[in-house]
Amino acid sequence: MKNYIKLMRPKHYLKNGLILVPLFFSKGITDFNKLLSVFLAILAFSFLSSTIYIINDTMDAEKDRQHPKKCKRPIASGQISKRNAIVFSIFLFVVSFCFHYYGNDHKLLTISTLYLVMYYLINLLYSLGLKNKPVLDLVLLSSGFLLRVLYGGAIVNVPISYWLYLIVITFSFYMGFGKRRGELEIKSDKNTREVLKKYSYEFLDKNMNIFMALTLVFYSLWTVDPRTTEIVGSDIFVWTVPLVIVIFLRYSYAIELGESDGDPVEVLMSDKILIGLVILYILSTIILFYRSLFIGG
Questions:
Q1: Is residue 189 very low, low, confident or very high in pLDDT (cuts 50, 70, 90)?
Q2: 8 A C-beta contact, residue 208 and residue 181
Q3: Which domain holds residue 254?
Q4: Which CATH number characterizes residue 69's domain?
Q5: pTM of the predicted structure, to 2 decimals
Q6: What is the mean pLDDT of residues 163-176?
Q7: Final residue in a domain of this structure, among 135, 160, 185
Q8: Residue 89 CB burial class (10 angstroms; 0-12, 13-18, ≥19)
Q9: For residues 167 and 244, is the Cβ–Cβ distance under 8 A?
């Protein structure tokens, strides 16, 4: 059982917290029914993402055996056979749509279902070979983060702000370029990711900086947007901008240290200061958006 849980990569479920973003920033998190729907949606997305990880690991098993870290994965190490892994992925796929069905008000023919299917198909195409196409691989990776937010909004019928839409896109590209840079940092002669041969530090660093700047600009404009200040109740949200700048700086620093493979979860978990900054940001936004709960107003 331990190997099957490891095969699912549950630590990467942190990324699915993006599904909660639309509900949180619309101040609807106190609605129990909507919160339950989002919780079921997160489970649905998490299990569906696990099916993709399993398919990817099955296809890359031979290459993974040559990687210093990936060789320890259940399929690459031989702890789980490819046949059993595929059967398990089918089971998770069915469970995923069961959670989606109950979280989506017992409906399947909806826009949220389309987002879920799009995520699956895009990642399937990625695993089948598009991950070896430079730039296109990052477009597909970034689309996964955007679809999480769109899916979260569709589940609870909350429209996505244009600023938030732009923030997610640029931030996703920033993390994507950071992931490739981290992988390039630890690559060896037996590198298992073909696309890294087509990237350079200069290209990745330059684009990381571009998308970091764009994200900070869009985030800053979002904090002072009239609709945002109306939801918050004042323009105080703009004071989180310096904290976000520091988070970006620390994240970039962690990437350049080369102590992780560049995956956002790996980068976050490998840096205690970064974890502290992110927690501080989360607590700050909770207080700013939901302060009426704390002051009884």
A1: very low
A2: yes
A3: 161-297
A4: 1.10.357.140
A5: 0.90
A6: 95
A7: 160
A8: buried
A9: no
